Amino acid sequence: xxxxxxxxxxxxxxxxxxxxxxxxxxxxxxxxxxxxxxxxxxxxxxxxxxxxxxxxxxxxxxxxxxxxxxxxxxxxxxxxxxxxxxxxxxxxxxxxxxxxxxxxxxxxxxxxxxxxxxxxxxxxxxxxxxxxxxxxxxxxxxxxxxxxxxxxxxxxxxxxxxxxxxxxxxxxxxxxxxxxxxxxxxxxxxxxxxxxxxxxxxxxxxxxxxxxxxxxxxxxxxxxx
Length: 225
Description:
Structural class: mainly alpha
CATH superfamily: Phosphate transport system protein phou homolog 2, domain 2
Radius of gyration: 19 Å
Number of strands: 0
CATH class: Mainly Alpha
Helix content: over 70%
């Protein structure tokens, strides 16, 4: 990232920089759908290409995270504690890390997915992406919350977004149970090592939604304070 990019976002409030970071995280996570589409098709060149894009976005998020941690003023006068913002930033970054980790596992092992899993994976991945997109909506309201002094109808708007995020995360839990059950029915016909990694992938995808929900929970705690 160019230096003038950092100059621009740090000349604004830290909330703007937090939003910039979350936008990169969301873009990273939303590479998972095309990634798994390519993996299911067995298109290894495309898998590798999308993984490179995921890695690039994760690196951008990580770089911005480090810059934020170094440059966030320690004597900041605002309705949110510096520590709370830094903890929120860390959770945001974990979503991008998770997207890179799970796509890296699939890429490194050149994983192929049995038909019964392949039918269920796209909707599951898409719903986990929905959770991250909803978390991005929460973070996009941070500057509005500050402007209103964490009061008024803006709080109700954010609470509504967080409630929807919780609903999406519950959906992903149900979908994970369904896809694990489908795998259990066929696991005896598959190589045991492959089965172990299929379960890891299923769980890893679900963690994206779990982390997204934690982003909402962190903002909720900030509202409560």
